[in-house]
Each structure stands twice: as C-alpha cells, then as structure tokens.
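Researcher: Batch entry, complex prediction.
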Amino acid sequence: GENVEQHPSTLSVQEGDSAVIKCTYSDSASNYFPWYKQELGKRPQLIIDIRSNVGEKKDQRIAVTLNKTAKHFSLHITETQPEDSAVYFCAASTSGANNLFFGTGTRLTVIP
Amino acid sequence: GAVVSQHPSRVICKSGTSVKIECRSLDFQATTMFWYRQFPKQSLMLMATSNEGSKATYEQGVEKDKFLINHASLTLSTLTVTSAHPEDSSFYICSARGGSGNGYNEQFFGPGTRLTVL
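Model: Structure tokens for the complex:
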C-alpha cells in the first residue's frame, strides 16, 4: 500500500518568512495530493491540492509542487502570518482507491 | 458547498456504555464516508471506509464488532463505539468523499467528536 512520509514534524518561522513542508510517497500510481490544515481541536480543512498532470499550483500565498519522478511533493507558504500556525497534513491517493493516505503532520508555528 | 456535519461534538460517557456518532453530508450525496481516529498530536488514522448500502471496510487492527458503522443513506453514516473503555477516548473525525465524478478522492471533513470515557 501507499506510504506517505512528511518532514519536518515541527517548524518555527518568523512572521513574514517562508515555510516549506515536504512529503514523499511510495506508490507511483498515486495521482492526487491534497494538503490539509488543522487547527487545535478542529477539523482538517483542505487548503490546496494538486493532481498528477501538473507540476505546480499556486493560490495566493500557498503553492504546492509535485515531482512525480522523485515521488515527492511540497507545500510552500510565503509571507507567513501568525494565523498560519496550525498542523499541516499532506496526503496521497490514487483514482482507483477510495481512501487518502496521510502524512504524519507538521506543526507550524509562526512567531510574531 | 461540501459541508459535513458531525454530532455530537463532545461526549463523556461511563465505561461499558455505547456511544453513537453521526456524520452527515449536508449539501451533497456521499456514496463513501470515512471514519478516522486521531490521538493528541498525531496524524489521522483511518479506521474504516463506509459505503452506502453495504458493509464497511475496516482497516487492519480495528475491531468491527466494537466500532459498528452504518451507512444507511447517501447523506448519513454512523459510528457506534460499543462497550466503550477509557482507551477508546479519542477524537473521532468523519469525512465524505466529494462527488466530483472525476475520479479524484477529494474528502471533506466533519468537525470531529471528542469522546471521553470515564
């Protein structure tokens, strides 16, 4: 089955700096890669996703890159703000399967 | 769109009792719903996949007789924790697969239920 690894487990950045979270996956058939943000005690919320037919996607301060050859994808947050502080999860899935395989999460802290 | 609700948000029960958690897709039909368990500061652990009108598929190590799942309609799935014990205390989150029809597994999460078993 799919195995998703996520690094780092914790990340602290100064407000205004960029944050990068990286994930690797094992199943070359995976073709959908969402990123979720989870604040303490709340539901995970989809913030951006990328499909295997593109290498990069951007939405304002958030971008995701995908390298299918190397089987890794990354989340980039620019101009970080304190409200970006949360736990971020990457995930991978194949179109033929039902479920998402989640990474172990990264706790991002943005220091004002 | 794509709103998923979950009820109750918090429940405290005595050891040995059963607790039912409901997961509803409010504005779309979800043929597939998922139940996750999350321990503090840990990732989401998939417990089971629930398909409307059929038996749930449980992940390895999850007791199907303890965690009963029913998906009776396209908008409702329930998880019943039977004979709950303190070790069952956790944050339970459901998700529903979006009906985009393009084959991609977009999932939308409920707000979660915090279960505390005394």
